[in-house]
Amino acid sequence: MKILWLDLNCSYAHSSLALPALHAQVMHRTDVEWEVVRTTTGEAVGTAVDAVYAHRPDVVAATAWLFTHEQLLHIIARVKALLPQTVVILGGPEFLGNNEAYLRHHTEVNCVLRGEGEESFARWLDVWDNPAEWGSVKGLCYLESSECSPLNAHLSEPLTLHPEVICQLSTANCQLYHDGGIARVENFASLAAPEESPLFVWSKPFVQLETTRGCFNTCAFCVSGMGDPVRSLSIDTIRKRLDRIREQGIRDVRVLDRTFNHHPQRAIALMQLFAEYHPHMRFHLEMHPALLPQSVRDVLASMPGGLLHLEAGIQ
Question: How far apart are CA 177 and CA 58, in angstroms?
Fold first, then answer.
């Protein structure tokens, strides 16, 4: 099967980390051919549609973000009109709530994946062409067809509607919403690193690095803290990944940890690790200003100039 990843970003400087993160888990599979179309919200919708259509994919996959979602749907709707047999699967933070109304309204989308996708997406690739088995995929939300009675069957007086309207209403009634819950990776540290994927983009001004997943906060405005425990990579694992990043000539690393200093001793260990890469690399961190004990402040004060770029405050 041929899967096409639609990498839609707000600017050229960004690239989807979801793509190499998912691909790294399944890149050994010889039965799956991957294609990528990269575009931005500043480019014409028709250009992206033409690029996708040229590949004639069996599956189109993409991540939906707040700032790209609207244009993504414009592209997907046109692609689906041209390639009605293509299966569309979306993921990302836009789907962490109830997805039933979304799927009923956006019929061009076959299914969405809620939660962490590395393991569930790999499982979905096993059954992508057999919707009867989609229920086995944790986190997958979709509409499944089922037998139902005619629209007028239970009415005392039959409705008088245009035949096309009756057809549409009957179809909607015959689709049952299936909710697969939330997909969570069992062992975050065991995942293949995104940098191992040949689809990882090394040509951008910076790369993103996830050393922890989850957040101990449960802020109502944020999707990172959803009650999951914070899971972390070892310092040795992070060092190996940074070595590889440096070998690629990358200077800027944006650490994706939602609250870098949630654990003071770990924050200290990481900053000391980052200092080993000075002056060849710089690190962008998000820190919580209320969680700065003296030990963390002392280490911050000792860091070489230009090594760290800090964002502090409510994200």
Answer: 23
Check: CB of residue 170 under 8 Å from CB of residue 162. no
pLDDT at 58: 98
**pTM for this prediction:** 0.88
Q: Which residue has the tokens 């909710």?
A: 179
Go through the chain and tell me how many residues it has.
315
Which tokens go with 267? 């924050």
The pair of structure tokens assigned to 38 is 């990269």
Whether cis (ω within 30° of 0) applies to the bond prior to 57 is no
Question: Is the pLDDT reported for residue 208 higher than 80?
Answer: yes
Distances (CA, A) of 306 to 16, 50, 249, 278, 303: 27, 44, 17, 9, 9
pLDDT of residue 105 exceeding 60: yes
Residue with tokens 């914070």: 230
Question: Is residue 164 over pLDDT 60?
Answer: no
